From TrEMBL:
Keywords: Signal. This is Family 10 glycosylhydrolase. It comes from Halotia branconii CENA392. The keyword Signal applies. Pfam families: GHL10 (PF02638). InterPro entries: Class_I_gatase-like, Divisome_Glycosyl_Hydrolase, GH, GHL10. Residues 236-286 are annotated as: Disordered. The lineage of its organism: Bacteria, Bacillati, Cyanobacteriota, Cyanophyceae, Nostocales. It comes from the Bacteria. Residues 412-714 form the Glycosyl hydrolase-like domain.
Length: 895
């Protein structure tokens, strides 16, 4: 009996203790200031390199909230214990986590931890990290909103943790995408599609804006949401534990102070003396597009409606690309008389399983169509693992059906970037000759040779202060021009425009990592700065010139003039023709060079360093001013260099300089805000000939999503678009798949980054599918012979149509077929005449004939639009390519 009484007393004491804890928590969260807070902090706040500049705003809000907290330095986190033993972890605007940190976070949460995050959390991390964060948060940052929007509740009846004032106001944030069935949308944006603004699951809350920044939201709203999130997570976990199991209190309980600010841009320190921590790899600067269609084998994680549609669509598109490639190969074989042998040599897929059937192309495609058709049903039945298994197996089977041993390429730009590292390793003209032999055999016809990199030239210059120290005893530019022309390839000098140095290159040279490059070292007044006085923005690795500085512009123009007049290069490609990456909504801004500040102040009476993004009119003027510096420089380069190359007005197209730009495929408004790169303007003005968007992606669907807006754009004038494909980390057949997509879209070619990743497997496939053909007439280059290219490409189209009609794959009446063939021949004749004799009258007649044919084409192919919509769209795209080649030729020949 006594034992029972003692036990009863212990129970009463325990319950009283729990009630006391709840009472303290209530006071902590509901009563300000902090005098009523519990002695032990319940919150850890993560400080990273990315939110350093926002830290003052973050800490002010935390202090106003009144909750005790401790600070964790992200750089020190390597294990679960390093996240600490507090029940709630706050990640404000942390965009980069390492795989080890993400795995440690998962372990920490599995031990009872709760996570609150804000902004594009983890968005710059590796694909596996992003996938893990999606799982932990049950959601992810989708995209930034263009304008400020109102937050409102997602439902009429709000959960109890949201019943407080100040949660709903105007915010500039982004759409949060719920990732699984357990996620709950707590608040939405008051826009037409009501995208999620706040998403929760059992152990996390994701706020869809950058917390702690005045340009994103008010302090009152930020505090209200963090208070509500803490209320939710602490109340939910208070009955089970006070600290997280397995953690150690590794952070100070004192209120954090703002870190020391770098030098003010009002009086920036000389760049050479600048001291800073070594920056991580600048992922965003290289536009590592790794957001992809991740399909994990055997995973039974639910597949939502949008993902289901994407999976089905990608299988159908891949079937279309495989069939399109085979049709192109058959048409090319018919052109050279090899159709009979081609029909006998069907590509086969041999299973690794003993005794399994060997499937031919038709069987694989038929099976793929069945899988694509049945995929929605599997997903509806919640058989997610099987759906993924079938999808992956079908994709692999289809990839293996590409006709990679037969020629299928048309006349197109086949460009590759020949990078500095590969040039250095070549070591001599003889070593470089081996590289050009490989490229020529693979059918590459245009080489972008890295000529100016990090402020160094790869040739002995009379303008630049220093040749690259890694180049000794030979002139790679002179050698490359000779080697390219011997192999009937074009050589374009690839130059860094406004990026003046590179910490990565300094490391290779074993010099001070903060060395700004030879040009800025000689002319520190030419440097550009961010709003804190850093020449290299936080998280990046390159100092930049000030594009508003007239001395910088004259130096670069003299350097480019030296290249195009002293060497017989065919073109010049401008890279880094922009400012470094910024994010005004996160108070990361750039462009405060000495000349830029003086000029803007003269124009407006305001020093731009005193303007904030919240001052919309002034900030817009400042953004336009910086954008105009880039725009006007491109125009200056175009006009001055073209005149130097062709002083007379009757210069032939074969002698004209081709000007290209390597650019980012971000949406136009976002790109102007973040890097001040408005290349649509350069295209419309006719300043450039080739736009090469860096549409780098790890899979074909992502590549298409990046490239499609610019391919479909009507804002590019007569400029040719040449999408870039990054070979790094791409499987060989994956690279070929992206290449086939390019050939099915209305563009004139592609560019591969870079020779450093051009392996022997790619060499073999390219040699077979696009290698040089020994024929009486050379294959035309679109940038040099646009009219002849149009005629040759149209002839290839006609061969495809003839094959399809001959095989009776579409049902057309005899009269319709005859009319179609007759009109197709009329177009071919007009194109041939224009190619042989370019003139305004021939161009006008060809355009009229082509337009009339395009108008009738859909009616002729009515059955094909139903039977094979992908192939029909490919044909329409190729007719558009021919139309664009005519526009380009008209401008270049001044017809």
């Amino acid at each position: 009996m006594k034992n029972q009484d003692e036990c009863h007393k212990k129970i009463i004491k325990t319950r009283f203790f729990i009630l006391s804890i709840k009472f303290l928590i209530f006071n902590l969260l509901s009563i300000l200031p902090a005098t009523a807070a519990a002695e032990e902090p319940i919150l850890s706040v993560v400080q990273s390199q990315e939110n350093t500049q926002q830290w003052t705003g973050i800490t002010k809000r935390l202090q106003t909230l009144g909750a005790k907290y401790c600070v964790i330095n992200l750089a020190n986190v390597r294990s679960a214990a390093d996240w600490g033993d507090r029940r709630v972890l706050f990640l404000p605007n942390v965009e980069t986590l390492t795989p080890a940190q993400a795995i440690a976070l998962e372990e920490w949460m599995s031990n009872g931890g709760n996570l609150v995050a804000s902004g594009p959390v983890g968005s710059l991390s590796a694909p596996g990290v992003r996938q893990l964060l999606r799982s932990l948060l049950g959601s992810y940052w989708g995209f930034g909103l263009n304008n400020t929007q109102q937050i409102k509740p997602s439902k009429t009846k709000m959960p109890s943790w949201m019943n407080q004032n100040g949660l709903f106001g105007q915010v500039h944030g982004g759409a949060v995408i719920p990732n699984d069935a357990t996620s709950q949308t707590a608040a939405v944006w008051n826009a037409q599609d009501n995208a999620a603004a706040v998403v929760t699951n059992e152990r996390s809350t994701l706020l869809g804006w950058r917390w702690g920044t005045d340009v994103a939201s008010t302090a009152e709203l930020d505090i209200a949401w963090l208070k509500a999130a803490l209320n939710r997570h602490v109340t939910a976990s208070s009955s089970s534990r006070n600290k997280v199991k397995g953690g150690s209190p590794n952070c100070s309980t004192s209120i954090a102070t703002s870190p020391a600010s770098p030098a003010s841009p009002a009086s920036p320190a000389p760049v050479v003396e600048r001291s800073r921590n070594t920056a991580p790899p600048e992922t965003i600067d290289q536009l590592e597009q790794k957001v992809r269609l991740d399909v994990v084998p055997n995973s039974n994680v639910p597949i939502d409606k949008n993902e289901a549609i994407a999976l089905q669509q990608e299988l159908e598109n891949l079937i279309g690309r495989v069939e399109s490639a085979h049709l192109a190969a058959s048409a090319d074989a018919a052109n050279v008389g090899n159709l009979q042998s081609l029909n006998k040599e069907e590509t086969q897929l041999a299973s690794t399983r003993p005794g399994a059937l060997i499937l031919n192309k038709e069987q694989v495609i038929a099976q793929a169509r069945i899988v694509a058709k049945n995929l929605p049903q599997l997903i509806a039945q919640k058989n997610y693992a099987l759906a993924r298994q079938q999808w992956l197996a079908t994709k692999t089977n289809l990839w293996q059906q590409f006709p990679i041993n037969q020629r299928l390429a048309q006349a197109e730009i086949r460009a590759v970037w020949l990078d500095r590292g590969t040039i250095v390793r070549a070591g001599s003209k003889q070593g470089l000759a081996q590289i050009f032999d490989r490229l020529a055999q693979a059918g590459i016809n245009t080489v972008f040779l890295e000529t100016v990199n990090a402020g160094y030239t790869i040739y002995p210059s009379k303008v630049a202060p220093q040749e690259n120290p890694l180049i000794r005893g030979w002139n790679p530019l002179a050698a490359a021009v000779e080697l390219a022309h011997e192999r009937k390839m074009e050589l374009h000098a690839w130059v860094w425009a406004f990026a003046a140095g590179n910490q990565g290159h300094n490391e290779i040279l074993k010099i001070n990592p903060n060395y700004p490059g030879p040009v800025l070292a000689a002319h520190p007044d030419w440097a550009n700065y961010d709003q804190l006085g850093n020449s290299i923005p936080v998280g990046q690795t390159k100092p930049f010139f000030d594009p508003a500085n007239p001395e910088v512009r004259q130096y670069l123009l003299r350097l480019y003039e030296e290249i195009v007049t002293q060497y017989d290069v065919d073109g010049l490609q401008l890279d880094y023709i922009r400012y470094p990456f910024q994010d005004p909504s996160a108070n990361r801004t750039y462009g405060y060079g000495k000349a830029a500040r003086a000029q803007f102040q003269q124009l407006t009476g305001v020093d731009p360093v005193k303007i904030s993004p919240s001052q919309k009119d002034l900030w817009q003027q400042w953004t336009e001013f910086r954008t105009q510096q880039i725009d006007s420089f491109v125009t200056q380069v175009s006009q001055q260099l073209r005149k130097k190359r062709c002083p007379t007005t009757n210069c032939s197209l074969s002698k004209q300089l081709i000007l290209s730009v390597a650019v980012f495929p971000l949406p136009e408004s976002e790109r102007i805000q973040k890097i001040q790169q408005h290349w649509e303007v350069w295209a419309r003005r006719g300043d450039i000939d080739l736009i090469v968007p860096m549409t780098y992606a790890q899979d074909t669907p992502r590549f298409q999503r990046l490239a499609q807006p610019w391919i479909a754009s009507t804002q590019l004038g007569s400029t040719l678009l040449v999408p870039g494909i990054r070979l790094l980390s791409l499987p060989t057949v994956g690279a070929f798949d992206q290449l086939q997509l390019v050939r099915d879209l209305p563009v004139s070619g592609y560019a591969l980054f870079a020779v450093d990743n051009f392996n022997s497997e790619l060499q073999k496939i390219f040699s077979s599918t696009q290698g040089k053909v020994q024929s009486a007439t050379d294959e035309p280059l679109p940038q040099r012979q646009p009219f002849k290219t149009a005629a040759v490409r149209y002839a290839a189209l006609q061969r495809e149509w003839q094959l399809v009609l001959k095989n009776d794959q579409q049902r057309m009446s005899t009269t319709t077929i005859a009319d179609f063939h007759n009109q197709a021949k009329v177009v071919q004749k007009a194109l041939d005449q224009l190619a042989a004799s370019p003139s305004s009258s021939n161009l006008l007649a060809t355009r009229a004939t082509l337009t009339r044919f395009q108008f009738q084409f859909r009616a002729w192919m009515r059955q094909q639009t139903t039977d094979n919509p992908y192939q029909f769209k490919v044909w329409e795209n190729r007719l558009v390519t021919i139309e664009r080649l005519l526009r380009y030729g008209e401008r270049r020949l001044d017809l």
